Amino acid sequence: MSEYVPMRLPRRRSVAVQVGSVMVGGDAPVVVQSMTNTDTADADATVAQVAALARAGSELVRITVDRDESAAAVPRIRERLDRIGVNVPLIGDFHYIGHKLLADHPACAEALAKYRINPGNVGFKAKRDTQFSQIIDIAQKYDKPVRIGVNWGSLDQELLTKLMDENAASPNPIAASAVMREAIIQSGLLSAERAESLGMARNKIILSAKVSNVQDLIAVYADLAARCDYALHLGLTEAGMGTKGIVASAASMGILLQQGIGDTIRVSLTPEPGGDRSKEVQVAQELLQVMGFRAFVPVVAACPGCGRTTSTVFQELASDIQEHIRVSMPVWREQYPGVENLNVAVMGCIVNGPGESKFADIGISLPGTGESPSAPVFIDGEKVMTLRGPSIAEDFKAMVLGYIEQKYGSGKPLELPSAAQE
């Protein structure tokens, strides 16, 4: 019998870029980032959302800088974040008038850790080179890196038209979609070459090339990765809401990550009205974690349920533990180094429960329909006790917390519940 070996390609070697306190590319792990949806001029709301995104695990946060009031607020936002101990680097997102805002607000230019430039709207015709050059000059003055972020929705129409005309005149024309992809790639590469010709070092440049179609995104980044060694920011733009946005982002970026492509990722989810912006951070972390690239939070394995598990006890218990872990992680990261590698199993019946629990660090197999009202608990692969009675859920939660303290904290022996033991 032949042995199947999962094919995860080696990480593409890229030039490392320092963004504030965070390294992107090179030997650094893939970095998670997100973006606020507050009005940056509203410093209170922006500080609150940046802090929430950082607590959720966003390692870089981008904010919109679209007018004078927004630019003026940036240094105040940075100062207030520093005051409350949130040191996440801030990225300024500039469109159309970034050159003017950075020049008119030097405190903003200094406070930001990176500038995002869209070559499709940094300027038009004769102004394009001048305004792009101004931003690059300011970035070099303040020693800031830039992300040259191409987006198919705001693509350089002059470049696209040129490539379309050349394609139409070719004896072997290619599909219009392929020309569009080439225009996206060329826009990024030509802009990066322009930045370098102005004196910007390669270790100050990150590229992105975002589209909203899964297959196009995979094709664009595969080609871009083969044609340069710049650090790459992955993201499916306008991914959408809910499960559609999650699935599309995971499908496209998962394939690229498996191919070794990508140095930082952003999952662009449209939140429900009043919804939690940090959901996109959670999805990005879970994508990297389930693929084995990084560990952010302890993993809770739970069965989906079937006719053998008509009780909802295991679902409620798994949900309670997972939510408690997520809420507690900002403190646990400091208090229990390594806790993100913990594996917990909460299973609903005897079919897969004991086996799954044995493979977890700590696991429980709750009784299914018609089974004896007892729940064996496994720690480090060994059955240590059986819980019984109405307090099974609470007893197990206490055991999980005790295991965390024993393994990642003080190291004192785990105390088992005195009631309902075998």
Automatic annotation (TrEMBL):
Keyword entries, A-Z: 4Fe-4S, Iron, Iron-sulfur, Isoprene biosynthesis, Metal-binding, Oxidoreductase
Cofactor: [4Fe-4S] cluster
TM ranges: none
Enzyme Commission number, as recorded: 1.17.7.3
Reactions catalysed: (2E)-4-hydroxy-3-methylbut-2-enyl diphosphate + oxidized [flavodoxin] + H2O + 2 H(+) = 2-C-methyl-D-erythritol 2,4-cyclic diphosphate + reduced [flavodoxin]
Source domain of life: Bacteria
Cofactor binding, note field: Binds 1 [4Fe-4S] cluster.
Annotated binding of [4Fe-4S] cluster, by residue: C303, C306, C349, E356
Domain named IspG C-terminal: residues: 300-400
EC class: oxidoreductase
Function as written in the Swiss-Prot or TrEMBL entry: Converts 2C-methyl-D-erythritol 2,4-cyclodiphosphate (ME-2,4cPP) into 1-hydroxy-2-methyl-2-(E)-butenyl 4-diphosphate.
Family statement drawn from the similarity comment of this UniProt entry: Belongs to the IspG family.
UniProt-recorded name of the protein: 4-hydroxy-3-methylbut-2-en-1-yl diphosphate synthase (flavodoxin)
